[in-house]
Amino acid sequence: MAEAYNPQNIFARILRGEIPCKKVHETAHSLAFHDINPLSPVHVLVIPKGAYVGFDDFSAKASAEEMADYVKAIGDVARQLGVATDGYRLLSNCGANANQEVPHLHVHIFGGRPLGRMLKKDGE
Ligand code: AMP
Question: Measured on CA atoms in the order 96, 99, 104, 109, is the torsion positive or negative?
Fold first, then answer.
């Protein structure tokens, strides 16, 4: 069975205004803010406002309006941050094998430098 949504997760607390974030962009259904521990010159997280554990949950349960808003927000944020011209990477960790740390769907936008290969091959 899929993991139940935990309303005490850190991104739920950001959405409720209980803890601050460095906001980049906000729409009816999505919020983007700077990652607290950036791994590249641009490292922003885009989250849906709805209570979705990860991509699996969101893709199964979100409304078409939420999905459209979220996809558009990700693209708009990348353009707003100026990384669309030189390129950027989207990454969303989903579940245990991906080491997802925060159980609220988020897409990382990485950019601002060449990002190297996507993953190491098995055994490297
Ligand atoms: P993941 O492993 O994909 O679940 O990544 C979680 C991300 O959330 C990490 O890159 C953290 O640095 C980031 N993070 C954790 N807490 C906060 C916070 N309060 N504000 C912004 N980013 C955070």
Answer: negative
What is the pTM assigned to this prediction? 0.97
pLDDT tens figures, 90-121: 999 999 999 999 999 999 999 999 999 988 88
Does residue 80 have a pLDDT over 90?
Answer: yes
Which atom of ligand 1 is closest in space to residue 37's alpha carbon? Answer: 12
Q: Is residue 99 part of a domain?
A: yes
Q: How high is the pLDDT of residue 118?
A: 87
CA of 18 to the centre of ligand 1 (A): 16
Q: What is the CATH number for 97?
A: 3.30.428.10
Q: Is residue 5 part of a domain?
A: no
- Which residue, by CA, sits nearest to atom 17 of ligand 1? 36
Q: Is residue 44 part of a domain?
A: yes
For this structure, is 34 an active site residue? Answer: no
Own/partner pairs for 12-16, CB < 8 Å, 24+ apart? 12/51, 12/104, 15/47, 15/49
59 within some domain = yes
- Domains held by the chain: number: 1
Provide the residue type at 88 as one letter: Y
Query: Which atom of ligand 1 is nearest to 21's Cα?
Result: 20
